[in-house]
Structures are given as C-alpha cells and as structure tokens.
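#lab-general

N.A. 3:47 PM
ok so I finally got the sequence cleaned up, no stray characters, all 340 residues accounted for. can someone with queue access submit it? mine expired

B.Y. 3:52 PM
send it over

N.A. 3:53 PM
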Amino acid sequence: MNTKYYVGLDIAAETFVACVLQAPSRVVAQPRSFANETAGYDELEVWLRQQDVTPASAVLCMEATGVYGEGLAYHLSAHEWWLAVAPPLEVKRAFAPVGHKTDPVDSRQIGEYAARFHDQLHRFVPKKAVLEQVKVLLQLREQYVQQKTAHLNALQALRRKVTRTPLAEALHEQSISQLKQHITTIETEIAKLLDQDPDLRQQVGLLLTIPGVGLLLASHIVVLTATMRDPLNPKAIAAHLGICPYQHRSGASVRRRDASRHFGPSTIRKLLHLAARSRCTHYPASRHYYERKVAAGKPKRLVLNNMANRLLRVICAVLKTRQPFLPDYQAVPPRQFKTA
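B.Y. 4:20 PM
back already:
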C-alpha cells in the first residue's frame, strides 16, 4: 500500500471531525465536522475524494469509542477504506498534555499519530454478527449474575435481622428467581447461536473435550480469540487476561516476588480459576500436580494461577491443531527421537 494521506477521525455521539494530513506536521485539509449517521458517512467519502484521498492512498485512524464509532468503522470497512482503531490512551501519551482540547485539535492529533506510528497500526476487521451477539449476551449474563449475587447477599442479611421485613424478603426472592430464569435463557441462546455457525460449533465442541472447560468458558475463549492479533499464542492471551507473572526487580534493593497484574477481562480470569479448581477435584493428573506443588511449599493461589496458564496452553493447542483433547497424551521432546 502506497500511503500518501493520513486521516484523523475524532468521534462524538452526534458528530465526528475529520482532518487530512500528508505528514505529521503537514495538514492538507482543515478539520471538518460531519453528522455521525449514514448521510454523514457518505458525505465524508465525497469530501475525501475531493481532496484526492482514495482508499488505495490513505490510512484512516480513530480512537476506540465503543458504540459511537462503530457505525462509521463498519461503513468504512465495507467500502474498503484502510481503517485503524487505536486505544485512546496510546494516542494521549503520544502528545504533551498542553494546549487546546477541542474536536478539531483532537482529529489533527489522531491523524498525526497515524502518520508517526503507521507501521504499528492494525487494520480494523469487523467481527462476525454471531460473535458480536454472543459477546453482548455474555456481558448481559455477567451483569445478571452480579445482580443475583447482590440480591442473595441482601436477602441473607435481612433474614439475620431481629426485626424481619416479609415484603423486602419476598421482593428479593422474586428478583432472584427472575434473574435465574434470565440467565438460563441467555445460556440457551448462546448455545443456539454458536451451533448455527459451523466453525464456531467445531471450536466449542473441541474445547468441551478438555476437562474443566464448560460452555461458558468455551464461549468466552471463542469470542476472545476472534478479536486478538495473535489469537492462539497462550503467552499473549495470558498477558491480556492478567494471569502472566512478571518480574519486579531493579538495582540491588528492589526485589519483589513475581506477580500478575490482574489487568484485562476479569470474567475469563475468574472462569479459568474455577476451571483450575475443578480440574484439581475431578482430574487426577491436575490433582497430583496441585498436591505436589503445595507440598513443596508453593502458595495455593500461585499453583492455581500456574494451572490456569497450563490450561490456557492446552486450549490453544486444541484450537491450533483442530484435534480433541487426548487424556493420555504425553509430550516427547524432539531430542529423544533418534534419526537413522
């Protein structure tokens, strides 16, 4: 791709501003505002072509603003524009925190960021509709689970009070019952959606052959790997989820214990932890590993975190090879093979 222009897009709820640059400090088209709707998307394309900007000669860049920029991103991708969606924090750190803070200034800075870091940008690729639906349902299920836990805790506290309030207890019980029904309905719909796509159905079926992996964890893994740049790299996924231990050492005085940062999606991290505990109970090989490490003096949470990382490597191996999990599989180092 012969990039000649860099277009910065600053997204708001009702409008967005575009600015065209040829170099980090060379603006060829001053910032212009458009309506954040289909008519505004078409107007943007007409304006870009008037500036001699074509899909083959330009890199467009916007910040990740959730649903506000989703319509424009899908529109540009469908019309074969090269679009990158950058993390807002990375764009912010690329500039000194001084000067005006307006939409035209932001659009110019985003365009300058694209010009300076164009070799590090990644093209936006829309996800499958079924994956987007499953992702929304998983998020909704997690919200309902948190609400159900809150009602359960409140109900337990009310039942311990000396003065009981029957109406409050009944309302909590009713809310808990409704939330349980909603969660069951969501899980059924997730399984139905995944079964409609042959590739997703195969991936989920392979993951379910792994001890400790259920439909919920398999669904989260399928959605996560579909959006990552290196989807089947267990180290990259572990770092993204926050279960990868990092060293903290500097000079001769700073010597902290290796620890995970616990960044990233907390739901998948929780499910991997529960899967590791389940394997300790029901899978003999994992139980033997857990007991051996604990007997050696390792903290229990550290051992469970290591088991979650081991499980993640198994998940990536199953998805990469497209082969089901083999309980009796034994890895053999290549050096043990003898050549003729």
